Amino acid sequence: MQKLPYVVVTNRHLSEVYELYYSAFDAFRKIPEIKTVEDNDNFCQVVKRTLKEHLTVIPSLAMGVLECRDLVPSEELDRFMNRILRSRISRRVIAEQHLALTDTFNSPFHFPDSSPHHQTGTDFVGEVFPRCNAREVVETVGKHAQDLAREANGPDSRVPEIQIEGHLDTTFPYILSHIEYIIGELLRNSIQATVDRHSSAAELPPIKILICHAPQHVIFRVSDRGGGVPADELADLWSFAKGPRPQARLQNFSQVPKMAATLQELQKTSHTHSRREGQDSSLSTLTSRPPHLRLGMGLPMSRVYAEYWAGSLELHSLEGYGTDVFLQISKLGNKSEQLNLDGV
Fold first, then answer.
1. CATH second-level architecture of 6-106?
2. I need a labelling partner for 100 at 20 to 30 A (CA). Which of 110, 217, 281, 315 fits?
3. What are the E-state strand segments in 171-268?
4. What is the pLDDT of residues 93-130, one digit of tens each?
5. Taking Cα atoms as reference points, which of 25, 24, 76, 81 lies closest to residue 53?
6. Where are the domain boundaries for CATH 1.20.140.20 in the chain?
7. Contact in structure between 222 and 46 (CB atoms under 8 Å)
8. How does pLDDT run across 176-217, given as a tens digit for each residue?
9. Location of each CATH 3.30.565.10 domain in the chain
10. Core vs surface per residue 131-149: b (16+ CB within 10 A) or e
11. Cα separations (Å) of 41 from 2, 52, 68, 96?
12. Does this model's pTM top 0.90?
């Protein structure tokens, strides 16, 4: 942030983010060396408080970049957003993992003499779920995306069916909140586009998801018949700074004070199938995102998540018909995090 032009950093939204990070750094550097379990518990309280305070970062960054789009080339703002969001993901992953492992250690079922019949949390390694089931993730997230569409368009409104095919028994290690957010944003876009395109049709065409299990990757293809992306919007599809209707997006973001960028954006009550029972984290903190608001950053944010774990996200549009979106993730769990943009 210090490398940005002064006129950009003085934007009130970006300045608030800068102060949040500076205050967090100042708080953490004053914590003495951790030597006991009690020291770690106190440290965890600081981490939890900081994570919750930083739920305002994404909306503030987005509004700041939109307001500064005429002051700095959009390419430079997009590079800034990609770098700071990857860095944010890295910090939160480390923090959430430490909190999760601490909770596991403090659990009465952590020790060998605990009841062998109690399975709480045994499927997780901290925040990592070693056996994510591709079909179950799509089914669960799809239901939430459909419910959200009904909430936005009316309880009696029609929503397209989600059909899943391919390698349905595919499993892979991943952080569930990340894959759920990406799939959720893709389905949210496809459902709304299909509803808008075929509002007067007798039946809505289904959204088809193909799961492919390759030796080193898992690939999700999300296909819809929502009319595709207009040609004049395609070039700016992955940009945080450019794109249509910037003023409307600014107004929408002003109604989203906090954003975790997880599946929680798709629902009003915390889901339990993928979270360890009894565990809580700042990533599962409910955030306020009204269902009708379109923020215009679901795709670029999802690509940041995908590329962070050495994956990719691509979209192919047939204007007037529909889109195919391809999400590729590494199934081996042996790729280093992509913190910089070299080669991207």
1. Up-down Bundle (1.20)
2. 217
3. 171-175, 207-213, 217-224
4. 999 999 999 998 887 655 444 443 334 445 778 888 98
5. 24
6. 6-106
7. no
8. 889 998 999 999 999 999 999 998 898 999 999 999 999 899
9. 128-330
10. ebbbbebbebbbebbbbbb
11. 33, 17, 41, 14
12. no
pLDDT in tens, 227-243: 999 988 888 889 888 76
Let me know: does 283 contact 177? Beta carbons within 8 Å.
yes
Question: Does domain 128-330 sit in CATH 3.10.100.10?
Answer: no
What the block records as the tokens of 197 is 């395109």
Residue whose token pair is 């003023």: 247
- Note whether 74 and 65 are within 8 A (CB): no
* C-alpha dihedral (289, 45, 91, 217), degrees to nearest 10: -70
**Backbone angles phi and psi of 9, in degrees to 5:** -65, -25
Provide the 10 A C-beta neighbour count for residue 268: 13
Two tokens, residue 76: 């430079």
How many CA atoms within 13 Å lie on the side-chain side of 50?
23
* Separation of alpha carbons 99 and 74, rounded Å: 37
- Kindly give the parts of the chain with pLDDT less than 70: 108-122, 243-296, 332-344
Name the E strands within the chain. 128-133, 162-166, 171-175, 207-213, 217-224, 312-318, 322-330
